[in-house]
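Narrative summary of target 7.
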Amino acid sequence: MATQNTATAVVFLEELAKIVEKSPATYSTDAAQELADSIRSMAEEITKDARVNPDLLHTTRQYGALDWHDEIAAVLIAAEQRNAVH
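Modeled conformation, tokenized:
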């Protein structure tokens, strides 16, 4: 059974995919969507292969969505573009 670290990695990938989708600084909309889909696929494979406990993953998603979205946006997106991501 997977650990909290595995669940955290899955949620991080899911949040990263959301940001990639929303990022105004992309080569193209299609490329951003393709990358986001690829990142989501990685998260799904980790979840399946590691047999992540659904309850642990749900709780981690709740905290991760609150804790990471703004932090990741601040790190990955230039200051002048941050409002477009939210």
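The radius of gyration is 14 Å.
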